[in-house]
Amino acid sequence: QVQLVESGGGLVQAGGSLRLSCAASGRTLTTYTMGWFRQAPGKEREFVAVISWNSARTYYADSVKGRFTISRDNAKNTVYLQMNSLKPEDTAIYYCTTERTPNRLSTEVSSNWYWGQGTQVTVSS
């Protein structure tokens, strides 16, 4: 059973930075895409960023492009999301994900992902 545990969320002022981490257990993630999604109150869960198994490919939502950076350390079974220049509209629960299928890469919310429990990010204006 794959388990994903996020950390690093919190309260930050607009313009500030946070770094989210996600530690995976239950399997090695060497050949699996990892990603981050988020869900704001009253809104549907949305894509934020994904990274391929070897870090060769990364994709970002337009709303975070240039401000957020996804990275991974396969030796530590961990994925990160560096968030800079945060805005109030970035306030959401952030979920770490990993694909169920090796080498598959998607930016869609679906049952093909394993999901973490989420970590709250709140950006004050």
- Beta-strand content: over 45%
Low-confidence stretches: none
Largest sheet: 7 strands, mixed
How many E-type strands? 11
The Cα radius of gyration reads 13 Å
- Per DSSP, the total helix count is 0
Q: How far is the N terminus from the C terminus?
A: 40 Å
Q: Secondary-structure element order, as H and E? A: EEEEEEEEEEE
- Considering DSSP H and I runs of 4 or more, what fraction of the residues is helical? under 10%
Overall average residue pLDDT: 95
Query: What is the global morphology?
Result: globular
Q: Oligomer, anyone?
A: single chain
**Global structural class:** mainly beta
What do these coordinates show?
The protein is mainly β. It contains no helices and eleven strands. It has strands spanning 3-7, 10-13, 18-25, 34-39, 46-51, 58-60, 68-73, 78-83, 92-99, 113-115, 119-124. The strands form two sheets. Strands 2, 4, 5, 6, 9, 10 and 11 form a seven-stranded mixed sheet that branches. Strands 1-3-8-7 form a four-stranded antiparallel sheet, with no helix packed on it. It is globular.
What brief labels describe this structure?
125 residues, mainly beta, four-stranded antiparallel sheet, 49% strand
Question: Topology, please?
Answer:
Elements: E1 3-7, E2 10-13, E3 18-25, E4 34-39, E5 46-51, E6 58-60, E7 68-73, E8 78-83, E9 92-99, E10 113-115, E11 119-124
Parallel strand pairs: 2-11
Antiparallel strand pairs: 1-3, 3-8, 4-5, 4-9, 5-6, 7-8, 9-10, 9-11
